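I'd like us to work through together how a protein chain folds, taking it slowly. To get us started, please write out a protein record for me. Label the sequence line and the structure token line clearly, so we can match residues to local backbone shapes. Once you have written the record down, we can walk along the chain together.
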Amino acid sequence: MVSKLIKDSPKAKVSPSSPAPRSAPSKPPAAKARPQVADEHSQGHGTALKRHALKTSGGAIAVRQLESAAPTFSLRTLHTFQKAPTASSLRTEVLGDGQANCLERAVAVARPGDRVVLLTDRRDPVGHAVVQRRDGTVVDPNAPSTPYATLESFTRANPRYGNPVAIAERDAREVLRTPPGPARNAVITRLGLDGAAARVVADPPALNERTTAAAQAAQLEAGYQGILASTHDPLQAARFTASQLQLLTQTNPAGAAALLRAAEPTLAHLSQTIGQAARGELPLDDDGRDRLRETLQSLARTAEASPQAAERLALPLAAALPDDAELHEVDDAFFDGDRSATGGTALARALFTELHASGKHDAAQGFADNEHGEDLQEIVAAQVLSAVDAGTAPEQVARDFGPFLTSEIARSVRDHDDQGSTLMATALTELAGRAAPELRGQLASDLAAALPDQADLLALDDVLHGRVQGQNAFSPGNALDFSVDLMNALSSAGKLEAAGGLTTVVHDGIGALRTEFESAQNEVDDLNGELNRLVGENQGILTPQQLQAAVNGFHDEHREAYERLERAGAAFSGQLDAIGAVADRDSPLSRLPGSQLDGLREEADRALVNVFPRLAGTRAGASAIGAANVAAGRGEHTILDVVTHLDLSDERVRELASDETEEALGLRDGATFGQQVSQAIFRGAASQLAGHPEAAQQVIDGLLHQAGTFGLSRSELSHLLDDARAVTSGATAELREAAADRLREQSAELEFLGPETAAGQAFRGFTTVLGALGTAQGLAHFGEASTRERIATLASALDTGVGAFELVAGITEQTSLLEAASGATGALTGVTGGLTAVLEGISAVDSFRHGDFVSGTGHSATALGSAVLGLAAASEVVPVAGQVAGAVLVAVGVGLTQFARVGAANAQEGPTRDFLSDAGLSDKLAEELANHTGNGGAAGPGLAAVAQAAHLTPGQLTAHLEQLPESTLQFLVESGVHSIPVDEQGVPDEAQVRAVARFFEETGLLPPEARVD
């Protein structure tokens, strides 16, 4: 992920395992190996340096008083401060030496059969010793009156300790009774305790915890001055003091800020020494370079305590360094070799920023440009990307890296540094993409405050544009929300030149989202049209189970297309607020010049006109709109406020709507657009309601907030919904009937939500779901007659039509209602009773009878959702052609209507054959039934009509056809069924159907149970 994100940058060297290890294509020759130096003084390791200083000074060195008036300390006191109480091991502990620690006390506390347990300390190289009794309880020798039930209980209460090594009590006593030296070492080896003998333990350093920051700072200064006086080597003193500072801040991170404030004089000494080394004023042999490197690395680890720690260390260091691009010894300490030695880049980032702030630009660039490998920007970008990929909380990443990213992007833009801008913008946009809206907005505001007011934002513009366009494996629209947040923040700050520089980014990002959604939707529309045709042609000759299998097979075959639409819906839904902010006439973007604003607003309006009405047809879209509806009920400003207040003329709607959208939704003017928007809102509300039935009141509150959009007052809509729930949940039949009468009377007077409108049918679908959830059993028990009757009564009172059925079918397929009703995803048996109840309540049958099959859906034949087919196919009310049985006839009618528009018959035979094969028919039967006539006629409708005339079920018919010889089957289909004429709606002629059925009966082509009247 990391390498993909920044591989196209001018210096793409960051790997997924960044920031370390680093690989570089070319490096200078390795330095010759240096001979080992045995002298501890020159190496600075161990305690020889301290012993030499004590001997030279006599144990006390006077130091100047600090401003804090802290007392002076000898080196012996400082050494005691760092080491007290005395640490020891099995090899070195001496009983009765007056320096008893936890190891000596543990052996004293232990009883026969007990074990002494040595533990390591995660915070310190010195561990601790405890006693484990024979019964498993653990005693801390420092607090023996408070035992722990188990060793695990002790480590859980004291998480700093771990990695236990246990020693038998008798073995521990035998070791400690033997004087330290060869004799004790022999005992340790004999008992097999060489590994345990390496463990060093001591009591916790309570002195550290009681020491004030001022006293600690004074001790640091004393240590620095003492080492300097004894060695006359500033780098020796600096390394020792920096290591002690690191130890103190890591032991007590909470006190780091106070300590660094108190230790400013000492930090100035360290910084001055580093600056002298960088200017060549100190001799730097190999050992000197090591000391300088170790000093800087200790400071770098100290800086990781907090951002404030890094800044406080960087200030004096930046002041002391020369403005020289060749800071080899300094930047090598941060970037050369094993980067884990520094623990992070906090100090490097703070130093780089402070060098720029103090006008030392050459030094800053020389410091950041690593000639041996990755530069500072590359390392930081890799750290940010690795952190977010690893799941680190965006808030934490923003705290650690946000200030550097924003300031460095601004500096790079100001200085025309494309490389730095590319890397930092990549990291910041990735972080913003993982952040919650509030944090994302804050990052945008911080960046806007830092950016110069110039139109050319250089690589920042390029990075954002590439992401919103869907380049480098990103989905279209990625980072659009951050781009819009940044535009708004720049506009609010009065930086209109910079805001205008992002116009193309935002315009093209919205366009990419819209184009991808429309393309995916058009592909699915074509597939749904094909599925409608297949169901319409064959539903009368297949059992419900066969038809369901065929529909499932079709979906499986075209799964990628349906999933592509879901992905496009999710991408658009994720950027709804950003698009709404652009379309919102009251947003800060209104300050932009008209030449920039007009095109931007037009693209946002175009996206909302073409996508929003159909967005609720996807899972993510329905969820997003449903959530926006709930938020609107809480009084929040949402995308629904924007889209319902778009002031679009009829001509403007036609200009913005694509040909495909206009045909699919019948968009002709502002009124039809309003219908489609309202339909989407009700679909989203139904999805939210079905997925979260416990939030029903919040969903209703959202709709009430928008009652005016539906042509109703808040009280009118409230009464309608109250009565709808009363129809199904009333305590008595009289109360339910009275509610149904009121609902029937009120709904008859609706205009905008009339039964013939798309919004009206969506309202009825939502209300049906609301009523179903209002019953005691819910949708899971639709099979119960009383519940089915209540839902049917509700549907009838509302004048429910196919639009409502499509919504209920879609919501049932897409939400947890399906699982609640059936007990398992994909099992439809528990749902079909509920859908049948809705069908039984459908009253608008006249339009179906006259061929107006999609009245009230607001969709064309090709755009009718396939959820209708998938669920209707599984119900037991699937009719044969020519019958009216609610919305299921719509599937037939849509199929036949679509079929009538198809001219090339051969092009349809392959999909039909596959459809019938998926239904479980034999290859022979599927091949013959898929054989269309020259004018595109299919065998299914005519054969189904013949079966109906002969009183045969689809199952009886197909079972019989499977047994016929191929020649007989071919004669039956081609000479018989295909001879039946159909009317303009594709319905077979009734008289001819009976004639053909009678002929088949007389010639023995029908099964014995056939009976033709």
